[in-house]
Amino acid sequence: QICLSLVKLLFYLAHSPLGSIVLLDFQPRQFVMVDGNLKVTDMDDASTEELSCKEDNDCTLDFPTKSFPLKCSVVGKCEGINEKKNLFNAYRYFFTYLLPHSAPPALQPLLSDILNATGDLQYGINETLRAFEKVLHLYKSGLYLQKRPLLLKDYISLRGFRTVEGEDYKCWPSYSHLGCLLSVHSAEEAAAICNSQSQCQSFIITQQRTWTGRPLASFQSRWTDLIPDTDAVVYIKHSASSGERL
């Protein structure tokens, strides 16, 4: 969410009515989240000036660990230097820390492609935004789940009940520090996640939703502490319920 919002902001800056705007003091502390959108808190160090040049050799974009040769345009300006400077700063301050860690495994290669392409400035801001929107579409639609074995058949579903809330085993990246609370596209994906965790014996799909509209599923190591809840369904592994009376 943070990276996508940042890319949308940089897309606007690259195509603003004033021309391409560069953030000269590009630091995480210069941004804040407001209603799920990233905002710049200080525009004092923003500029529309692009580096003047006489030849391509005048247009090297330097960073502490990398340098990028750019072209000198016919009007004597380094082509796209403001856009590329913003984008590489987004890569080194945000993408490298946030992109690799919280996506479903099937989407991680696509995010790695974005990471590599922006880290080498192979993508401009237009291509970067399109790549992010593709990942978002796959994430929200559940298309990344195609060709998976159906695992929900290995679970018993009890409607009208839920498990007692409380501290349980932890997982990453959980939305709760008390247990394992993850976003899922469907109960089928939740069953696959539960199967992949040795501690998991049951799960419920909660009424909570993430910023993309996906529900949150609570994964638990127990299932015997059930309480009535007309809106809930608890899913229990067949193996966990063997020998027990439901």
TrEMBL record:
GO terms for molecular function: non-membrane spanning protein tyrosine kinase activity. One of its GO terms (biological process) is skeletal system development. Residues 1-19 form the signal peptide. GO terms for cellular component: extracellular region. Keywords: Kinase, Signal, Transferase. It comes from the Eukaryota. Residues 2-116 form the FAM69 protein-kinase domain. This is PKDCC kinase.
